[in-house]
Amino acid sequence: MTSDATPLAKRSDRMVAILAALAEHGSLQLAELSTLLDVSPATIRRDVASLAAQGLLSRTHGGVRSLGAAHELPVSLRDGWHRASKRAIAQLVAGLVPPGRHAIALTGGTTTTEVLRALRQREDLTIITNSVGLALEAAGQGQSRVLIAGGVLRPNSLELVGNLAEATFRQINVGTAIVGSDGVSVSGGLTTHDEIEANTNHTMIERAQCVIAVADGSKVGQVTLARLARLDEIDVLVTDSTADSAELERIRQHGIQVHVVTIDAPV
């Protein structure tokens, strides 16, 4: 059995692994999941119960079934997924932020949070966000100028959205917007799971002189429900070496500057 020191001893990692396995197989028995993740049947039962309660899978007799359509993972489950990729992306993006006093706007998300962490030594930045989690992270690392756009809280993403947040963004000028998404593609542009969140983040993008999209390789070529930006509204895409190379070339052909960080494997 897996020891507590291994990555899948972390519950959020196990839950994401369960959902990934269901996306591939459609349905699985609990015993199969126990073997696949190398954890006890009791642990699998608890994880499955939690995922079912969040509406992320369907329970069957002795097993589980995928709900079929792509569902948005709660932010609490995303932190450990593709961690190495997100950190490498963040380090590259930090180097793209101009020196000196500068206003950066960040959407919510685990990759944008890693970007903020990579900028922790930059005391000359103004941080603008509609993400509660990211604002708390900024305050915790000592950023002295943090502007939070108010609005209605989305529990899954912990972002504040709607008319109030959009009105806030319209009153400010942004040097660089750093934008996460659930999909980036030639056909869809930048997409996410919620239309109201997409509209709010698009308002942020409209106020920025430079827009940097950040996405681990699993999101390249994906299209989800709501478009938050057309491809021609993006200046730079930073992703990793697991991304579909053909899709990246198509994105380059649309005039987007693409940076690819090399990683050994998805983490």
UniProtKB/TrEMBL annotation:
Keywords recorded for this protein, A-Z: DNA-binding, Transcription, Transcription regulation
InterPro entries recorded: Carb_Metab_HTH_regulators, DeoR-like_C, DeoR_HTH, NagB/RpiA_transferase-like, Tscrpt_reg_HTH_DeoR_CS, WH-like_DNA-bd_sf, WH_DNA-bd_sf
Molecular functions (GO terms): DNA binding; DNA-binding transcription factor activity
Domain spans labelled HTH deoR-type: 11-66
Stored Gene3D superfamilies: 3.40.50.1360, Winged helix-like DNA-binding domain superfamily/Winged helix DNA-binding domain
UniProt-listed SMART domains: DeoRC, HTH_DEOR
Protein's recorded name: Glycerol-3-phosphate regulon repressor GlpR
Organism: Luteococcus japonicus LSP_Lj1
Organism classification: Bacteria, Bacillati, Actinomycetota, Actinomycetes, Propionibacteriales
